[in-house]
Design brief:
about 180 residues, globular, alpha/beta, 7 helices, 8 strands
Length: about 180
């Protein structure tokens, strides 16, 4: 573990939990048993933008439901692990699939099931309202809470550190309305 700015510039893969990271953790259950979650549009835009710029984005979550599938299909996320209770196994599978090293991965989690995979990546980070145990293993704690822009915060930091964030004339900034 070295200098934060140098280490964050090594990140090529962004791995995220969902409930409590991409959402505020609240879940509404419909009478049909479907879960409804609210996502932050700026998080979605940042993820779409990062993928257009060549970053890999993955979701590893214990959550499940059609709404998750729809959201990540809309964003174009190719690596989605839902109903996942052994997150470290999913992380290792992803690392093999993408042929990446731990120091090239940022993992954002918010609760105890995220700790093990966070300990196996180069850049473990969390939202402002993460569990105390998660904060303790994180290299960076966003100033934003889960579902309130914390994903945008870390994606933007990675891309800025690598010189990939928006510059005037950037043709990759347009993202379809469906992506947001």
């Amino acid at each position: 573990m070295g200098n934060f700015k140098e280490d964050i510039a090594r990140v090529r893969v962004i791995v995220l939990d969902v409930d409590g990271v991409m959402t505020d953790g609240g879940i509404i259950v419909t009478p049909e048993g479907e879960f409804i979650r609210k996502f932050h549009a700026k998080d979605g835009y940042a993820l779409s933008y990062a993928m257009k710029r060549g970053y890999h984005v993955a979701i590893i979550t214990g959550g499940r439901g059609r709404s998750l599938t729809v959201r990540f299909e809309m964003l174009g996320v190719e690596h989605v692990y839902t109903n996942c209770f052994h997150k470290i196994d999913a992380l290792h599978e992803l690392m093999q699939k993408l042929d990446v090293q731990a120091e090239e991965i940022l993992y954002m989690g918010d609760d105890i099931p995220d700790i093990e995979p966070m300990l196996h990546v180069g850049m473990p980070v969390c939202p402002a309202d993460a569990a105390t145990e998660v904060v303790e293993v994180s290299r960076y704690v966003s100033q934003f809470k889960g579902g309130e822009g914390c994903v945008r915060d870390v994606v933007e930091q990675v891309m800025r550190a690598r010189g990939d964030w928006y510059k005037p004339g950037d043709k990759t900034v347009a993202v379809t309305v469906a992506s947001r």
